[in-house]
Amino acid sequence: MKKALETFALVVAIGTALPASAATTLFDFSNLALSGNVNVGFLPADGVACSVGDLCSSDITTVLNGDLTFLKDGITVLATASFNGGVAAVVQDHENGRNFAAGLGAGLGVYHQKNNNSDDNITLGESLSIRFDQDVTLANVYLRSEGHNTSWIRSATLLLNGQQTALNGTLDTHNLFVQKGTAVTFAFNGNPSDGMSADQFYLGGMSVTAVPEPGTYALMLVGLAVTGAMARHKPV
Fold it and tell me: DSSP strand E in 104-178: where?
């Protein structure tokens, strides 16, 4: 009886250590609104006001650099921007009352021109890099056009981790070139000889699931092995 209780206790302990079915976390960068001239919604942990309702990684009237940091469900996202290989500023573009559920709004964009509030979407020479503090699997990536919707020019594309990709309103994981990891980069796929090859866009949001640490699975396997050994050697 004692052996049985010990085995049962070990199984319970292992069960509590196993990863639960990973929940999907939605980073809704388009979820912004003004309430008494105060920006509310899904906001970064840092950032400065750069136009009415918008948040930027730096004061774009003087310098273009920095990052925006978002935290949800224990996952941290760091967004940075570049222009032709140099540093640029990240913006979380505001459109009052818009969010992911409405299917409208903007999201994260790039500033490479100082003091120019019209330079907020991702366009020629610009790229937006997203880095996670842990391994994740991307479930979906949600994009918004320059008009804060999902209406693209004919055959529009973008560069996703350097690979040409159809610029859909929603990019499903199966169409992504990176299934899981800690980083993904979005860039304008400009082609001077073909004005219809690309379109300006924002990163409206993304849904991800955390990838359990390898040590968790190692613990599980060791525990199961010990449980099996105890079951084989228990007295009849």
Answer: 108-111, 126-145, 157-160, 163-166, 170-172
CA distances from 146 to 41, 133, 198 (A): 21, 29, 12
Six-digit token string for 118? 């019209």
Q: Which domain holds residue 117?
A: 22-211
Rounded to whole angstroms, how far apart are CA atoms 67 and 47? 8
Judgement on whether residues 71 and 123 belong to the same structural domain of the protein: yes
Q: Determine the Cα–Cα distance for residues 60 and 92; give it in Å rounded to an integer.
A: 13
116 and 51 within one domain: yes
Domain count of the fold of the chain: 2
Quick one: 14 and 31 in the same domain?
no
pTM exceeds cut of 0.90: no
Q: Vertex 78, ends 114 and 41: CA angle to 5°?
A: 80
Q: Each residue of 43-98: pLDDT tens digit? A: 999 999 998 789 999 999 999 999 999 999 999 999 999 999 999 999 999 888 78
SS3 224: helix
* In a shared domain, residues 82 and 121: yes
For tokens 């499903």, name the residue. Answer: 172
Q: 214: helix, coil or strand?
A: helix
